[in-house]
Design brief:
The chain is mainly beta. The chain has 1 helix and 13 strands, in the order ββββββαβββββββ. The strands form 3 sheets. Strands 4-3-13-12-9-10 form a 6-stranded antiparallel sheet, with no helix packed on it. Strands 6-5-7-8-11 form a 5-stranded mixed sheet, with no helix packed on it. It has a two-stranded antiparallel sheet with strand order 1-2. The longest helix is centred in the middle third of the chain and has 5 residues, at 80-84.
Length: 145
């Protein structure tokens, strides 16, 4: 069995797409361990409306990936919009510690901004509901559910 990195659903080994959410599978086969008491949160793509679920017990990498080298972030921002907005292949990571979500820039080329403030690479910054995150010029909004 393999697990979807978007929603955590269990799928057959030969599945090309998650049966629960439809996300295409990548090389990541790690099963999530979900703390049901942990806060629930999502990242919203402000332009397209796409919603990305955050898994509280996993560090989730955000980026555009690279099919040629096999780099696949947990949250893959697809399309020409991500490339033209300056999203790096492995741009930032989001994680939850002690029921608080954080974001960390991973030494990206075009930086990560939280509510207009440039983040210092490799230094976690606390996220709050409705925070705006720019990966380069690509805009996401953090939402606690």
């Amino acid at each position: 069995m393999k697990y979807c990195t978007e929603c955590g659903a269990e799928n057959l080994d030969d599945a090309l797409f998650c049966e629960a959410c439809g996300r295409p599978f990548d090389v990541s086969l790690r099963p999530p361990t979900i703390n049901v008491k942990a806060p629930k949160a999502v990242l919203e793509d402000v332009i397209s409306g796409q919603v990305y679920s955050l898994v509280p017990d996993l560090e989730m990498i955000l980026g555009r990936g690279d099919a040629d080298t096999g780099l696949t972030p947990d949250i893959a921002l697809l399309g020409a919009a991500a490339v033209s907005a300056g999203v790096s292949r492995m741009h930032a990571k989001v994680f939850c510690r002690d029921d608080v979500f954080y974001i960390t820039d991973m030494d990206s080329t075009n930086s990560t901004f939280l509510n207009g403030q440039r983040l210092i690479p490799q230094q976690p910054s606390r996220l709050s509901d409705r925070d705006e995150i720019h990966l380069g010029r690509y805009l996401l909004r953090f939402r606690e559910l």
